[in-house]
Specification:
The complex is a heterodimer of chains A (113) and B (114).
Chain A lengths: L3 E4 L2 E5 L4 E7 L6 E7 L6 E7 L4 E4 L2 E6 L4 E6 L8 E7 L9 E2 L3 E6 L1
Parallel strand pairs in A: 2-11
Antiparallel strand pairs in A: 1-3, 3-8, 4-5, 4-9, 6-7, 7-8, 9-10, 9-11
Chain B lengths: L3 E4 L2 E4 L5 E7 L5 E7 L5 E9 L2 E4 L6 E3 L9 E3 L8 E8 L9 E2 L3 E5 L1
Parallel strand pairs in B: 2-11
Antiparallel strand pairs in B: 1-3, 3-8, 4-5, 4-9, 5-6, 7-8, 9-10, 9-11
The chains are: A mainly beta (113), B mainly beta (114).
Chain lengths: 113, 114
Amino acid sequence: GENVEQHPSTLSVQEGDSAVIKCTYSDSASNYFPWYKQELGKRPQLIIDIRSNVGEKKDQRIAVTLNKTAKHFSLHITETQPEDSAVYFCASDRTDAGNMLTFGGGTRLMVKP
Amino acid sequence: NAGVTQTPKFQVLKTGQSMTLQCAQDMNHEYMSWYRQDPGMGLRLIHYSVGAGITDQGEVPNGYNVSRSTTEDFPLRLLSAAPSQTSVYFCASSSLAGGDYEQYFGPGTRLTVT
């Protein structure tokens, strides 16, 4: 089955700096790659996603890049703010419905004011 | 819309007890899934359903049963609880309508098995 590796497990940045989180996946049939933000005690919330026919997607301060050949994708957060502090999860899915996600192990991002 | 709802929010079971975690969605989504999240880890897929009457196993199905008699409801049954099933359980739903892949998660059920 699919295996998703996520790095780093913890990341500490100064407010205003950029943060980058990287994931690799094993199943070449995976075609959907979402990123979730999870605050303590809360449900995961989708922040951005990308499909395999796109190499990059941006939404304000957040961007995701995908390299299908190398089977890795990355989350980029620019101009970080203290409210960006949370655990971030990458995931992948090979179905057409996005309902069979395989998650990475998570990255705890701490943004210091 | 209430979105995805789960009950109960918290539950403590003794080893060997059985129980059902409830999940309901009011968005008319055809796809529903159950995940578990152990401390400090990502979510893992337990079971999923692509429509009423259709269910299948995910990555970690052992010890759990599901059924999908209606589009709205997708209960998860623990047959004989074990301490290894202590976890937070999230239900999710999604739909292909409009090309939206997003999975909407419920608030979670925190289960402790002693």
